[in-house]
Design brief:
This protein has two domains: about 35-200 and about 420-605, no CATH class; about 220-400, Alpha-Beta Plaits (2-Layer Sandwich), CATH 3.30.70. The chain contains 29 helices and nine strands. It has helices spanning about 1-15, 20-35, 40-45, 50-70, 70-80, 85-105, 105-125, 130-145, 150-165, 175-190, 210-215, 240-245, 245-250, 290-300, 310-320, 340-345, 345-350, 385-390, 405-410, 415-435, 440-450, 460-465, 465-485, 490-500, 505-520, 525-540, 545-560, 570-580, 580-605; strands at about 225-230, 250-255, 285, 300-305, 325-330, 350-360, 360, 375-380, 400. β6 (about 350-360) and β7 form a beta hairpin.
């Protein structure tokens, strides 16, 4: 038992430090338990055949079909379009729509679809997107409380009941608590409007001064230079693509001014980039750190001077013509942990990365060897048709800048497969309600149907699965087994009963909620639920309490991931576009956690009686 607790403590510390991927930490934890003889090799691997893990993987595929066929995106666009400039109606629509979609689909995928639409609509209302993005992210987490498949912790809890030979919560039973919490949140927002004081780190490309915004947000000010090609320069006779300035010197060429005549030309063409060979006295408008600019200028015999004010209007018109967009790196992007140089970004996508923001702060312009991370904001420059292609690559990019130009071109029209995937989702819900088959068989059946019917291609199905989540859950199940086998779970439960049980059931429920939600702010809420669910079960018996209210309190605590931007992937997604700080999440998420706890303490004992 002591060895198990030591391994668990090390695992939690590694989760908090986040130095290595959480799923690797969890695998190392399971391996350590097996090496110390606490669990058998078969028990170490049992998580990978667990019905919870298979169910969650299948649900990712089912959700992918709804996203791939454009169902979620069209629903979001059309419903938000009906708000017609009414700010309150817009906010209510965003929150309710996000919560409902998250009740049936991945909350991360839902928020990824909603971000461009919400930002575009907010700017039409002449409001800051930051006023809406954080409430939207919070409503996605609340939406997980609406149904059995709304969030993986709900499925973990259902599986825990089945393993103990008890009837699990029904499909919509979680909504008995989730819907009142959503209503309470709407009332809370009405009484305490969440106007943001954050400095928004997304650029409004509809404004005339958008280049000034770019300079401020991505810290490009004083980092844009005019480079004149001198006599005998090594660039003379070379096209921009052949010079490889971006790849070799971490310098981005924004525009070219032939012979310095203030007639800026577009350096980014469809197939390559500015094929015209450089000539003496040509001027390059370049963005980069001064040390990189200086190094390039020395090697190519270039004259350096700060960009002139008179370049502003020409450059702004040129940038509008070229096309600029901002993008977020999603959680399952293949670009994660890959650098701009290693990817061969321009060669692959025909657009350049002009700036990167991470956690609200601009990276230095010599970022080509910096590994990209989930949630990074990229400022992209290129032809509009190439940016439109990125709009369609939803696995790797969430394009949210210049949405009025991109939204229509990037949105898929509803077709036969759209209706087929919608029908499959409805059929799945009905089968779960009627309990035609066990849940794991239903999800596999529906996922297989969607693949065979062409609603989602096999490659897209594999890509849609969050393997990090699947491996993390499968690798944490052996820890739950070890805690049960060694009596560790019983020891923790006995101590909780001893400390909290004497003060009454409501105090115990409060303790269970706080324990779950505190861990969920810093490590995966699914991993937290896997650990706490068995302990919660064992606290009920000695007090003569029903496990149902206690496990529902675990579900509430697991979904209340509002306190930090790393508490949930949806929080990370809105961090950059909303310009939020860690403090914003604490300031706005703290009261919401308290609200969820109060509503849960009032309703849970009424809906699920404490005494069996």
């Amino acid at each position: 038992m002591l060895t198990t607790f030591i391994i668990l403590a090390v695992t939690i510390v590694m989760f908090l430090l986040n130095r290595i991927p959480m799923e690797l930490t969890a695998l190392a934890s399971a391996l350590a338990l097996a090496l110390f003889g606490i669990i058998t090799p078969q028990e170490m691997l049992q998580g990978f055949s667990n019905s919870t893990v298979i169910t969650i993987a299948a649900l990712f595929i089912i959700g992918a079909a709804l996203f791939e066929t454009g169902v979620a995106e069209n629903i979001a666009g059309k419903l938000i379009g009906l708000t017609k400039g009414n700010e309150l109606l817009f906010l209510l629509t965003v929150i309710i729509l996000t919560a409902v979609l998250s009740g049936f689909l991945s909350n991360t995928g839902t928020v990824a679809v909603m971000i461009p639409t919400v930002i575009a609509a907010a700017k039409k209302l002449k409001k800051s997107p930051a006023d809406f993005l954080l409430p939207m992210a919070f409503s996605a987490s609340i939406g997980g409380m609406l149904t059995l498949i709304g969030t993986p912790p709900n499925i973990v809890i259902a599986n825990a009941f089945e393993e103990n030979g008890m009837k699990a919560f029904s499909f919509f039973e979680y909504g008995y608590l989730g819907m009142p919490i959503l209503i309470a949140y709407l009332i809370y927002l009405k009484l305490f409007p969440q106007k943001s004081s954050s400095e928004v780190t997304s650029v409004d490309f509809t404004q005339e001064n958008f280049t000034a915004q770019l300079a401020e947000v991505y810290e490009l000010k004083d980092k844009v230079f005019r480079l004149r090609i001198r006599e005998n320069s090594g660039l003379i006779g070379k096209p921009l693509k052949g010079a490889k300035l971006s790849e070799s010197y971490n310098v981005n060429i924004i525009a070219v001014d032939p012979a310095g005549e203030q007639k800026l030309q577009n350096p980014v063409e469809q197939e390559s980039s500015y094929k015209h060979p450089f000539e003496e006295d040509d001027v390059l408008i370049a963005a980069g750190e001064f040390e990189d600019i200086e190094r390039m200028a020395l090697e190519f015999n270039l004259g350096i001077q700060a960009a002139k004010k008179e370049d502003q209007k020409s450059r702004e018109n040129l940038l509008k013509e070229i096309g600029l967009a901002e993008a977020i790196i999603p959680q399952r992007s293949t670009l994660n942990q890959q650098s701009i140089r290693k990817i061969g970004f321009f060669e692959r996508y025909k657009v350049r990365v002009l700036g990167i923001m991470r956690n609200g702060k601009a990276l230095k312009l010599n970022f080509v060897d910096e590994p990209l991370k989930f949630g990074d904001q990229l400022l992209l420059i290129g032809q509009w048709n190439e940016i439109n292609q990125l709009q369609k690559d939803k696995r790797n990019f969430i394009i949210y800048g210049r949405p009025e130009r991109l939204r229509k071109s990037g949105r898929k029209e509803l077709n036969f497969h759209s209706w087929l995937s919608t029908g499959a989702l409805i059929a799945m819900v009905l089968m779960m309600l009627l309990k035609v088959f066990p849940m794991v068989l239903i999800t596999i059946l529906v996922a297989l149907f969607l693949i065979l019917s062409g609603c989602v291609k096999m490659e897209a199905a594999y890509r849609s699965i969050s393997w990090q989540s699947v491996i993390l859950i499968a690798a944490m199940i052996p820890m739950s087994t070890a805690l049960n086998n060694t009596g560790g779970a019983q020891l923790v439960a006995d101590n909780m009963v001893g400390v909290l049980g004497g003060s009454g059931p409501l105090v115990l429920l409060t303790g269970i909620f706080l324990l779950t939600t505190v861990f969920s702010q810093f490590i995966s809420n699914t991993a937290t639920t896997i650990l706490i669910a068995p302990i919660a079960f064992k606290t009920a018996e000695p007090l003569g309490l029903s496990p149902y209210p206690i496990l529902m309190m675990v579900a509430a605590g697991a979904s209340a991931a509002f306190l930090t931007p790393i508490a949930s992937p949806v929080n990370t997604l809105v961090l950059g576009p909303g310009g939020y700080s860690f403090g914003d999440f604490a300031k706005k998420g703290g009261p919401l956690i308290l609200l969820v706890m109060i509503v849960s303490l009032i309703l849970i004992p009424i809906i699920w009686p404490l005494k069996p």
